[in-house]
Amino acid sequence: MAVNLEDVVKLAEQLDPTQQNLLIYRLRVKQMRQRPEAETAQPALTRRYFDVQQESYRSPSREDLIRETEGLRDTPPRPDDSLLGKYANPNVPETSAEIFHADMHAIVTEWEQELDEFYNDES
User: Fold this and answer.
1) pTM above threshold 0.70
2) Which DSSP string corresponds to 46-97?
């Protein structure tokens, strides 16, 4: 029996939202398992605490999260993990530290004023 993508999509659309989410999850898990281990050094929280056989989610405890954080700290960084320059805009002119801090202060002040207006509108 030959199955094409359109047939699968039509069948998936007939599932209720919970079953659709489970299908999406299972496909993602399959994709992650097919990737080389080097690309997935640390598994995601949902993958770690979701049992596919039982199809139930267990919320991670504080100890689990602390253990995972310590594991991440012990993992040596890979050279390709750097964010340095990834989001840099070369068209931004050079500024001094004083101008940068003044601009940041202006942004924070504007943000605080907007929050004040928001809370005043609610009352």
Assistant:
1) no
2) HHHHEETTTTEE-PPPHHHHHHHHHHHHHSPPPGGG--TTTT--TTSPP--H
